[in-house]
Amino acid sequence: MSERQAKKQRKVQPQEKVKAAKKSATGFNVFLALIIVAAIVIGGYVIYNQYKIKNPSMDPETVSDRAKSEGISVEEFEAKYGIDTVEEVDGDTEMTVASGYMSLEKYAEFEGKTVDELKAEFGFSDDVTNDMMMKEAQEYIPMSKAAESMGVDYASLMQMYGLTEEEVPQDMLFKDAKPILEAAQQKLIAESQASEEAPAEAE
Questions:
Q1: Cβ distance 90 to 74 under 8 Å?
Q2: DSSP SS3 for 59
Q3: Contact predicate 67/74, CB 8 Å
Q4: How far is CA 191 from CA 23, 32, 180, 194, 197, in A?
Q5: pTM, 2 dp
Q6: In whole angstroms, what is the distance from residue 118 CA to residue 120 CA?
C-alpha cells in the first residue's frame, strides 16, 4: 500500500464512524452523535458545525475544490494558509479537516476576518495565541459560544443532552465539557437502543 493510499484509508475511518453513529441512534440522537464524532474523530468541531450550518445539503468541499475556486493550485493554496507542511493534508482532504490545521491567524484570513473578530466570535481568551492551530484553539471555546457555532441556543443544547447548566456552565471550556457531553451522548444512545430492542423482544 502506497503512502497516499494509506492516507486515504485513514481519512475514510472518520466517515465510517459517522455512519456507525447514524445506524446506532435515531432521531435527535443522530445529531448528538455527529457533534461528538466531529469533535473527537474529525478534530474540526467548530469548522465542521459551521460548515454544516452554512452548507446543509452540499457535498464536502475539498482543498482542491477551494484552491480551484480561488484560481490557484493546491500547492499555492496550502502555502497561502500555512498547511503546506502538514502530512495529513492533500488535495483530496475535506476543508473541514484541513482548516483545523490552520493557525488562528491563517484561519481568520481564510474566513475573511481579523484575528480580533475571530477571537470575539468564539470567546477566545488570551490563552489562545495567533499561531495556535484551530483544532487546538477550539478546545478553549466557552460552551455558550460552542452552542452558537452549532446554530442552537444554550438551553436547547443542554436539553438535547439531558444536562443542566449546573453540570455544564456556559463559561465552561469545550475541552472540559467534552467528556461530560460524550458520556451524556452515550447514555442517550444506549437508551435509544434499549427502547428499539424492547418491542422486538416482546414479539
A1: yes
A2: coil
A3: yes
A4: 14, 13, 17, 5, 10
A5: 0.66
A6: 5
CB burial of 15-47 (b: ≥16 within 10 Å; e: otherwise) equals: eeebeebeeebeeebbebbbbbbbbebbbbbbb
Residue with more model confidence, 37 or 193: 193
* Number of structural domains in the chain: 1
Residues 114, 135: Cα–Cα separation, whole Å = 18
Q: Give the total residue count for the chain.
A: 203
The mean of the pLDDT values for the chain is: 76
**CB-based contact 11:38 (threshold 8 Å):** no
Distance CA 145, CA 153 (A): 9
Question: 84-119 b/e with 16+ CB inside 10 Å = b?
Answer: eeeeebbbebbbbbbbbbbbbbbbbbbeeeebeebb
The 10s digit of each residue's pLDDT in 140-153 is 989 998 888 777 78
Give the range of the structural domain holding residue 59, as residue numbers without chain letter: 3-202
At 29-77, the pLDDT tens digits run 333 444 444 443 333 445 555 555 555 555 778 999 999 999 999 999 9
For the cut 70, the answer to whether the pLDDT of residue 8 exceeds it is no
Q: Taking a C-beta distance cutoff of 8 angstroms, is the pair 32, 4 a contact? A: no
d(C-alpha 189, C-alpha 191), whole Å: 5
Rounded-to-integer distance, Cα 144 and Cα 168, Å: 10
